[in-house]
Write a structure and sequence with these properties.
single chain, 15 helices, 30% helix, globular, binds flavin-adenine dinucleotide
Length: 470
C-alpha cells in the first residue's frame, strides 16, 4: 500500500541547512495516532515526530517517512489556579501555557529562548532555560506524561517510573508523548528585575556566574566571539530576579503587558528588521555588531537594575520576526556544548581560539550555567554551556564541520556533553562517547523492546545510528 503523494511535504530544521520530504499528518484526536502507527506498519514507512520545528538540525525531519506533526493536537485539558498544575495535549506550546496561566500568577517553570516549542518537542529534547542552574531541565517539573509506544503499549508515566526519565530527552525515538501534566511556577509579578553587567574577559565571566548563582533566578551571558587576547570572553552578563508587587492584581500579570510591540522605537516595523540584519550578517558586519554591543553595554545601563516583562526577558529572539531569514540562502547551525565547571574556562577559550584561527567566528555566543539531571540523553552537567551560531555558505560548510569536530574533541576529553536540539555535526562515536556506553546500551535495549519494528526515526537518528539494528 502506498501513501498519498499529495501529503508529501518538504520541511527543514530551524537552521534551514537541510530539508527532507515526508508524508505530513496532523492529527487532532488520540485515535488518529493509533491509525498512523498502523498505517506506518502496513506501508513499511517509519515515523518522524515533529513539534513546532524549532530544533536547529535534523531531529524533526525524516526523509521519506511519515511526518507526525502534533501542532493541531493542542488542547489545554485542565488548569488548577490554586495549585498551578496544568494538563495539556502534547501540541500545546510554551506560549499557550503562559497566556493561559499568567493572570492566575503562574509562569512555566522552564522556558527556552523562544516561546514557540510544543510540550512534545520540549520533552523530546528536555529543554532548559536561563534558570537551568536552579531549575534543571523542564522534565524535572513534569508530574505525568501519557505515552503511546510503537509496540502498542499505552502508559501513564510519573517520576517513580524509570521509563519517565528515558522517554523524556530521547528525541522522540522511544515513544509518542500524547499528554503532559506540568507544575507551573508561582509568581507575584509579570516582570523580572534585570541586572546587566559588562564583563571584560573569560575569567570575569566565570566568576560572575559563580557569584550570582545562589541569589539570581535567571542568569545568561552573551559572548563576543571575535574578541581575543586579554579581551577574549568579554560580553554582557544578565542576572534576573522574580519580583513582588504591592497590588493584588498587578497589571504586569496581564498578557497585554507582556505582548511585544510591533514596532521598534514606536515607528520602525519589526517585520522588516531581518532585512537589515542580513546586510550585516557577514564576518565584517558581525565583528562590528559584536564590538558595538559590548561597547554600548559598558556605557549604557551597566550595573543598573531595571524591570522587564518575563516575555521580553526570556524570548528576546522572538522580538524580531523571521530573524533566521537573515542567514539565507545557506542557513545556519547552532553548536552547543556542555562542559564540567572546572574544565569549561579552558575548553571555551580554546573553542574560540580555534574559530578565530579558522576565521569562522560564531556571530552569536551565549553562555549558561547548568546542573546534572537523571534523564537518559541528558545534556546537563555541573558546569557551563556555550551556544554558538555559525552561518553556512556554499563555500564554508566543510570547514565549519571540521571546526565542529575539533571542538567536539575538546568537549569529550573534558567529559562534556552535547544537546541534540542544537546538533547538526556530531558523529555516532562522538554522541555515544558523550552520553557513555552504559546509557547507550540502556537506550538500545529499550528501543528494541518498545519499538520492535523500528517505526520511530529522524534524519538525526539515522545520522547518529540511533537504531540498534543499524
Ligand atoms: C530561537 C530559539 C531559541 C532556543 N532556545 C533554547 C533554549 O534556551 N534552551 C533549550 O533547551 N532549547 C532552546 N531551543 C531549542 C528548542 O527549545 C528545542 O529544539 C525544542 O525541542 C523545540 O520544540 P519543538 O516543538 O519545535 O520540537 P521539534 O523541534 O519539532 O522536535 C524536537 C524533538 O522532539 C521530538 N518530538 C516532537 N513531538 C514529540 C512527541 N509528541 N513525543 C515525542 N517526541 C516528540 C521530535 O522528533 C524531535 O526529536 C531554541 C530554539 C530556537 C529556534
Amino acid at each position: 500500500m502506498n501513501l498519498p503523494l499529495d501529503r508529501l511535504t518538504n520541511v527543514t530544521g530551524f537552521g534551514m541547512i537541510t530539508g527532507a520530504d515526508g508524508y505530513l499528518f496532523r492529527p487532532t484526536q488520540v485515535e488518529e495516532f493509533y491509525e498512523i502507527l498502523q498505517l506506518a506498519k502496513s506501508t513499511g514507512r517509519q515515523i518522524t515526530m515533529r513539534g513546532s520545528g524549532r530544533s536547529y538540525g535534523d531531529a524533526n525531519i525524516g526523509s521519506e517517512s511519515i511526518l507526525l506533526d502534533i501542532t493541531r493536537f493542542n488542547q489545554i485539558l485542565s488548569f488548577d489556579p490554586q495549585t498551578g498544575v496544568i494538563d495539556c495535549q502534547a501540541g500545546v506550546t510554551i506560549e499557550q501555557l503562559w497566556r493561559h496561566t499568567l493572570e492566575s500568577s503562574f509562569w512555566p517553570p522552564v522556558v527556552s529562548g523562544t516561546m514557540f516549542p510544543t510540550m512534545g518537542g520540549a520533552l523530546g529534547m528536555n529543554l532548559h532555560g536561563k534558570n537551568a542552574f536552579k531549575a534543571g531541565p523542564i522534565g524535572n517539573h513534569v508530574i505525568e506524561i501519557e505515552v503511546l509506544f510503537p509496540n502498542g503499549e499505552h502508559s501513564v508515566l510519573t517520576q517513580s517510573d524509570p521509563l519517565f526519565f528515558q522517554v523524556i530527552s530521547t528525541a522522540g525515538l522511544l515513544g509518542i508523548i500524547l499528554r503532559v501534566k506540568l507544575q507551573m511556577h508561582q509568581i507575584n509579578s509579570g516582570d523580572v528585575r534585570v541586572l546587566p553587567l559588562s564583563i571584560p574577559n573569560w575569567d570575569a565571566q566565570f566568576k560572575t556566574f559563580e557569584n550570582f548563582r545562589n541569589e539570581a533566578d535567571y542568569m545568561v551571558s552573551w559572548i563576543d566571539c571575535f574578541a581575543r587576547g586579554k579581551s577574549a570572553g568579554r560580553g554582557d552578563f544578565h542576572a534576573a530576579y522574580y519580583m513582588d508587587e504591592p497590588s493584588q492584581f498587578p497589571i504586569t500579570l496581564r498578557p497585554e503587558h507582556q505582548d511585544l510591540p510591533d514596532t521598534i522605537m514606536g515607528f520602525f516595523p519589526k517585520s522588516v528588521v531581518w532585512r537589515f540584519i542580513k546586510r550585516l550578517n557577514n564576518r565584517t558586519g558581525m565583528r562590528f555588531t559584536n564590538w558595538a554591543k559590548h561597547t554600548s553595554g559598558k556605557i549604557l545601563g551597566n550595573g543598573k537594575p531595571h524591570p522587564l516583562s518575563l516575555v521580553g526577558f526570556n524570548f528576546l529572539l522572538d522580538y524580531v520576526p523571521n530573524w533566521r531569514n537573515s542567514y539565507l540562502p545557506g542557513g545556519f547551525i547552532q553548536y552547543q556544548s556542555f562542559v564540567p565547571a572546572e574544565q569549561a574556562p579552558r575548553v571555551f577559550a580554546q573553542q574560540l581560539e580555534l574559530q578565530q584561527a579558522a576565521k569562522l567566528e560564531s556571530f552569536l555566543g551565549v553562555m549558561k550555567r547548568h546542573v546534572p539531571d537523571n534523564f537518559l540523553f541528558s545534556h546537563g552537567v555541573d558546569g557551563y554551556s556555550l551556544a554558538l551560531d555559525f552561518k553556512i555558505t556554499k563555500t564554508n560548510k566543510e570547514s565549519v564541520w571540521k571546526l565542529a569536530h575539533q571542538m567536539n574533541e575538546l568537549v569529550l576529553a573534558a567529559g562534556g556533553r552535547f544537546y541534540l536540539a542544537k546538533d547538526s555535526t556530531l558523529t555516532p562515536d562522538h554522541f555515544t562517547q558523550s552520553i557513555g556506553p552504559e546509557s547507550f546500551q540502556t537506550y538500545a535495549q529499550l528501543k528494541l523492546r518498545l519499538d520492535p519494528d523500528s517505526i520511530l526515526t529522524s534524519d538525526l537518528a539515522r545520522r547518529l545510528h540511533l537504531d540498534p539494528r543499524d
